[in-house]
Amino acid sequence: MSVRIIVAKDYDEMSRKAANIIASQIIMKPDSVLGLATGSTPIGTYKELVKKYENKELDFSEITTVNLDEYKGLSREHDQSYYYFMHDNLFDHVNLRKDASFLPDGTKADSEKECAEYEAKVASLGYADLQLLGIGRNGHIGFNEPGDVFVKDTHVVDLTESTIDANKRFFASADDVPKQALSMGIGTIMHAKTVLLLASGKDKAEAIKNSFFGPVTPQCQGSILQFHSNVIVVCDEDAYSLVK
Ligand code: GLP
């Protein structure tokens, strides 16, 4: 097991450090498969990556991306779909090839089939060289919610009340938050050669403590990362505040 924890002063410093780590991955392996994440946490990191691209420090032309998850039922044009988020925050601002970015499609009638096809796609790419992760307040990674098991492959998830509550700020009301999502499984994530997990703010302090300093249990899905051989956590002081 190898978990390196880097504590940054605040969100901005976390974002800069994370972008530097991703940048070195791209420089060292220009045809990397990057596993990407959504949520408010990585937005600053994506901004830093766009800046590096604009400054001609980075070239995305050989990069392939795979995303962790997508809400079920939201069209790609919906401004809360993760497809829209990724285009808005990164894809439209760098020189990624148009056919080199993959997300599960939440609009397919047969979600189980879509999940199986997505898993096969990620596997055919050799899984992520570097997987970026945020973490839910309840320790979820991707949309792998607390439960009795770790689900291996990409699957359909029923979102928990806690996640719907956390994400309702992006929708008109909690009723508008999709109740299901398609998410990479824990096995898909654990195949990544490097995992880079970001966390910022006191809201995430419990999840960081439980994931990296508690027992490995599906009740806190992030804790499985203790069994990964190459994990880097970049968190700010608030997110680290419950670690003694
Ligand atoms: C979302 C996403 C996760 C993300 C997490 C935290 O629901 N599915 O991939 O890491 O919840 O989100 P945020 O960064 O907004 O706190």
Strand and helix layout:
Elements: E1 3-8, H1 11-28, E2 33-36, H2 43-54, E3 64-67, E4 69-71, H3 82-89, E5 101-102, H4 111-124, E6 130-133, E7 155-158, H5 161-167, E8 180-183, H6 186-190, E9 194-199, H7 205-213, E10 231-236
The chain binds 2-amino-2-deoxy-6-O-phosphono-alpha-D-glucopyranose (GLP).
Description of the structure:
The protein is of the alpha/beta class and 244 residues long. The chain has one domain (3-236): Rossmann fold (3-Layer(aba) Sandwich). It has seven helices and ten strands. The strands form two sheets. A seven-stranded parallel beta sheet has the order 1-10-9-6-2-3-5, sandwiched between helices. α7 links the parallel β9 (194-199) and β10. It is globular and about 45 Å long. The model has no long low-confidence stretch (mean pLDDT 97). Bound molecules: 2-amino-2-deoxy-6-O-phosphono-alpha-D-glucopyranose (GLP). 2-amino-2-deoxy-6-O-phosphono-alpha-D-glucopyranose (GLP) is lined by residues 37-41, 68-69, 134-136, 142-143, 163, 167.
Describe the structure concisely.
The chain is an alpha/beta fold and 244 residues long. The protein contains 7 helices and 10 strands.
Taken as a percent bin, the fraction of beta residues is 15-25%
Please give the number of β-strands.
10
Cα end-to-end separation: 20 Å
Unreliable stretches (pLDDT < 50, length at least 5) are none
